[in-house]
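Q: Joint fold for the lines below.
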Amino acid sequence: MSDTSTPDTTSPAASADALLVVDGIGLRFGGVQAITDVTFSVNRGELFAVIGPNGAGKTSIFNCINGVYRPQQGSIRLDGVEIVGMHSRETAEMGVARTFQNLGLFGNLDIVDNLMLGRHHLMKTGFLSGAVWWGRAKREEIANRAKVEEIIDLLELGNFRRKPVGMLPYGIQKRIELGRCLAMEPRLLLLDEPVAGMNLEETEDMARYIIEVRSNLDMTMIMVEHDMHVVMDLADRVMAVDFGVRLATGTPEEVQQDQRVIDAYLGKAS
Amino acid sequence: MARQSPYLITNYGKDLRLFGSSWKRAGLLLLAALFVVLPLQLDDFWLSLLATVGVYAIGAVGLNLLTGYAGQVSLGHAFFFGVGAYCAAWFGGGNAVGTRDEILFLDLPMIVWLPLAGLIGAALGALVGPVALRLSGQYLAIVSIGLLFVGDWILLGWVSATNGSQGLRIAAEPSIGPVNFSDLNIFGSAFSPEQGEFWFVWTLVALVALLAKNIVRSRPGRALQAIRDRDVAAEIIGVNPARAKIGVFALSSGIAAVAGGIYGMIVVRTITPEIFTGFGGLVTSITFIAIIIVGGISTISGAIVGSLVVVTLRQVTSRFVDLLPFLKQTPNDDGLMLVGQFNLIVFGLLIIIFLLAEPLGLIALWRRVTTYFKAWPFSY
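A: Joint structure:
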């Protein structure tokens, strides 16, 4: 393994309260080493941020956690269950939800349908019982609609309930995507640049919703974000990565002071 | 107790109603009235035309589930339509055109052979479904054309079952138990076959439309739309694309086969491979695509409205061919082109015009008009 990685202060075995343990994962695309021996763990109820310059491998780490990529080395355990090798559909059923950097909403559907789709894996109706409608399908639809409406209330999306989401402003769409993740009733929420491309007001709104989700739903979250104000204000712990290698893990203050992180962002004085 | 406004939706059950507003309920009542009255008022030409419209509407509902809701472009719909028609002959009773008589025809009642035709169509559709896991868009469309030519080869080659290019004559009757819709006799008053068949076909249209609507407003239908809009995101939230795609291929092919069975039994009575496969099949498939584009992509009612426009246009030009001097009924007549060729040009133009001007079809136009009046006197 590469020597550039530092000894870990938060070793996987250290915390019994860890929900997610990522242990020495490595991901390679042909000759490109995207992630090298990255290790971290996320505790229950924690907001863990991953930062790093462009191309550092932040989104690749997300893609490993929710089964889009399959790391060649290492293991990822959610509540003790190995999830490397699982399909992204299976990790969704395990309770991993994620938002996308450039939105992954269903543009022609309205907010209610987008959020109901978040509950797809919690529902059972198939083609046959759906076609009959009366009975189970309708009961299930009403029960899940009630859950979806709670999220619509929490995120204050009620004004746009029946609009196709593709027609709504970007900031609202980001919020809908957060809502769709919450509808999945996840154990672990992955937020990929939740405030990217937002103006100051939208950023503050989003930060407020993230705080609200944390306090109301006691959600464990990992956030990839470039906006350092948001990261430093919201995160409990931060991990900095560069070129697929972990530079430092710690509280926001510690990571801010770390010489390797400063070098990675600003370049080394020669 | 608080007084409730009749216009307020106070629970989710009410919000999920198909005919929630009094306007919609009035519309439903009007349609029901037309259903009863039309056969008593119209002559047989218009009634058999409307029966044909209904048959195409059923098939188009199936195609709209596949192409409109799930986003899988298929030109192979006519093949499954044909599967149903041949099933009608094989299982519902029939005989070979010409001298061949060794073909085995069962004489099952319609209540058995029509669902059976649907199941066989669905099974064949499910076999095609996995192809859609690998291909999408224009690639899938090309592959589905291949289906039409494989079908042509089978229907022409498998003479011992299909009688080749000479085709089969269907003897099945639209009867359920003692009630034969082609020979309807209620309380001593006899109805013409066209009247009974109108009621039969449009009852089925309503049934299929209701089932399809129920699917698209519940969990499986939402999964189809998710896959159409963004397949990667759909999978990440837990939608199984294989199940959704194979399911919708089976469903849409099954509906096409049911429509094809009724088409064979009521509309043509004699079936040949050229209606369903090869180039003729391509024309039939494009007719279905024209129907859903004109009516409205990814709406159930659009399939019915589109069929009303497209099929009526087609039947009316063949009926009133004498009024259009540049058309001819048979190749030996005077005139610039055949009716069928003219119809193709019209369908092509309709597809182009609608895709340019109103890509979501007549239903979108209708929604715009109703929204305008709902918001009146405001403009938004």
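Q: Anything notable?
A: Chain B has one domain: 42-174+189-375. Residues 241-268 of chain B form the longest helix (28 residues).
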